[in-house]
Amino acid sequence: MTKVLMKGNEVIAEAALRAGCRAFFGYPITPQNEIPEYFAREMPLRNGTFIQAESEIAAMNMVMGASASGARAMTSTSGPGYCLKLEALAAMTLTRLPAVVVVVMRNGPAFGTMNAAQEDYRMNGNGGYKVVTFAPSTIQEAADMTFEAFDIADQYRNPVVILADGMIGQMMGSVDFDKLPAKREHLPEKTWALHGRGQRNGKSEFLFIAEGKNHYQEKYDAETILYPEIKANETSVEIVDVEDADIVMCAYGTAARMCVAAVEAIGSEVKLGLIRPRTLWPFPYETFGQIGDPCKAIICPEINIIGQMIDDVRIASAGRWPVHHVGDSATGPLTPDGIIEKVKEVWKEMKV
Amino acid sequence: MSVLYGKPESLNDVPFTFCPGCTHGLTLKLVASVIDEMDMGDDTISVGCVGCGGYMPWFMNVDTIFSLHGRAPANATGVKRMNPDKLVFTYQGDGDLASIGTAEIIHAAHRGEKFTTIFVNNTTYGMTGGQMAPTTLIGQKTTTSPYGRDAGLCGQPLHICELLSTIDGAKYIERVAVDSPVSVRKAKKAIRKAFECQMAGAGFSLIEILSTCPTNWGMSPLESLERIRTEMIPAYPLGVFKDWEEGDK
Ligand SMILES: Cc1ncc(C[n+]2csc(CCOP(=O)(O)OP(=O)(O)O)c2C)c(N)n1
Predict the structure, then answer these.
(1) pLDDT tens-digit profile of A64-108?
(2) Has residue B133 got a pLDDT over 90?
(3) Is B15 a member of any domain?
(4) Are residues A114 and A183 in the same domain?
């Protein structure tokens, strides 16, 4: 196949289907509606299950049931619905059930605007868990990450979140489904999947805490075995010109695309570098060690107020550089011009 | 020596840990016996809940998933859709089902999900120490209705069977009690009928079981059984609210 032009949300749905997702449970919310709508059309034709659930809570708990039954299961939502899914997401991390959760972020609470935003970086359920969190910046990346997310979820028996901003969901772009990442091999067999004890010669399975461990053992193993392994294997980042940059920007998703536009507009006035995390967890902390001596400051553009990822950027910077937020203004969301203005302001301060 | 009476195979060989006089253990035994009698032990998936009924998975010797408070019907929906030929049931208390989980139970019935719910109504939140539930009777004292449930403030008790029987996707709905040997036998028959309705692919089925909670009611086991007869059954009439016969769809 060659490149086709498709909307980001539909690309995500198609990539999931190609990854073998055959169970989708969702609830309407802008700006992700094209995902459930795509599944509603395709699942009956591709031998899968689509349910429009009564709420995001129910949708996520249906994902849990389908995943426990061995299926590749997925749900998608935006911030207000993501809040409602967190209890079940947290439970799935503890019971070690794989799934893919797509969050197409928008501005503000349920009665906010529907503008694209990056406001759900910090969203976390109870229980102290970590999930691989992808941040696509292009339509092709949305496809690649969604496709790979299912393998990663199965490999580690841990859910994966795709944190896309509304722009990625709503924008049309070119995608080549032949260029999807290779399928991972040797994924663990789902011997635990619930199909009745007859499947296991009469030995019943109780999916509460995996392998009959207790809570503390499961969490301890996550901290000492599972999460270090994921960090070592799955951290993904794009690094551009950080060795000799005057200022390094760190951004993900659509904000990172704005950074590229800012670099072009600023030209040789200031040498700009870019760190673009593709995974927000694991966050690419070590990458900041590659930043060269000329660097005077870090700017962290995000489509929100105050900044969310900026906390991780500060940790990664460890006091070596001042870290500045630039984000939404009183008139609207972050723009490339807003980034350019911030760069100039910081650069001016640095020179005096 | 021949065994005349034994534990159902679908129960684990561990003692129940419920309070003395609590009918959860008896009810689980009924469920397990029906599963065995239908020869479905190898092909059953049970969905646990949060509450005292949440201990069910430790006692049942069938494939089991534990679900979050009120969400068992959503969980069971995912399980059953992936396992359309298996026997799937949720086991839920009245706080779980009639309060926090009303959306999930109504919509599971509404979609006509082909699983069964065993609904244990003991008119209180047992696990958390006896708070008021939507099913708490008028005048009943609980830790959060210390002066007795006041209909003016808290409404009348919620009648789940009556409510669900208005929904087309619900195909078999019956309320039973476990206060006497006769009622226990009826309860077992009801559970079997609901499971058969499910396996025939007819739709959603639910059996409400009027149960005891001696610890939180502050009653002896015998007084508790008596309370089912004198207070609960008058408020929650027993019977079939939605009937289904073999061959019906
Ligand atoms: C989201 C959430 N809220 C509250 C609780 C606390 N909780 C645990 S058990 C329970 C009550 C269960 O009562 P009921 O469903 O009536 O079952 P019973 O214990 O009486 O059998 C509650 C509120 C919880 N675990 N999760």
Answers:
(1) 999 999 999 999 999 999 999 999 999 999 999 999 999 999 997
(2) yes
(3) no
(4) yes
Q: How far is CA A103 from CA A37, A68, A300, B198, B249, in A?
A: 15, 22, 21, 35, 39
- So what's the pLDDT on residue A1? 65
B93 lines ligand 1 (CB under 6 A): yes
Pair (A70, A97) in one structural domain: yes
Strand-strand pairing, B87-93 and B116-121: parallel
Over range B124-133, report the average pLDDT: 97
Angle at A216 between CA A213 and CA A218, to 5 degrees: 50
Identify the band that residue A183 occupies on the pLDDT scale cut at 50, 70 and 90.
very high
pLDDT of residue A215: 85
Chain A contact for B83 (CB, 8 A cutoff): yes
Which numbered atom of ligand 1 lies nearest the CA of B97?
15
Q: Could you say which DSSP state residue A251 is in?
A: -
Contact B145, B136 (CB under 8 A): yes
Cβ <8 Å between A53 and B62: no
Q: Per the structure block, which two tokens stand in for A24?
A: 């989708």
Pairing relation of β-strands B170-177 and B239-242?
Answer: antiparallel
What stretches of A235-335 show up as alpha helix (H) in DSSP? 253-266, 310-317
What is the value of ipTM here, to two decimals? 0.96
Contact A249, A323 (CB under 8 A): no
> What CA–CA distance (Å, rounded) separates A100 from A116?
21
Considering only the beta carbons, identify the residue of B41, B81, B107 that sits closest to A197.
Answer: B41
Nearest to A116 by CA among A162, A145, A78: A78
pLDDT above 90 for B249:
no
Nearest CA to ligand 1 atom 12: B51
Q: Which of A191, A70, A201 is nearest to B42 (CA)?
A: A201
pLDDT tens column, B169-194: 999 999 999 999 999 999 999 999 99
The number of distinct structural domains making up chain B is: 1
In a domain, B2, yes or no: no
